[in-house]
Amino acid sequence: MHDVTLSPAQCRGARGVLGWKIEDLAAATGLTRKTVSDFENGKTTPQPRTLRDIREKLEAAGVEFIPAGAYQGEGGPGVRLRDQPSSGP
After folding, report:
1. Tens digits of residue pLDDT in 42-77
2. CB 81, CB 64: distance < 8 Å
3. Looking at CB atoms within 10 Å, which of 5, 21, 55, 89 has the fewest?
4. Which fold has domain 8-81?
């Protein structure tokens, strides 16, 4: 599996780079808006399966999660869009 635990900030950041609203992530995962919102605001910690489902949907949409210290041992965890193959010839 993955070596990065999904944090609320990473979830918000992933939605941000995708241009998704909370409702978009909720619909993609089959969760309620409240479940996603409460997680992102640090009010609750979802079950491991729920976190995995969120992560998998975000990754399938093109997000890459970056572990803390990935760059020369510096920096905290983050998110970015994966390089997308060009659609040209």
Report:
1. 999 999 999 999 999 999 999 999 887 777 767 777
2. yes
3. 89
4. 434 Repressor (Amino-terminal Domain) (1.10.260)
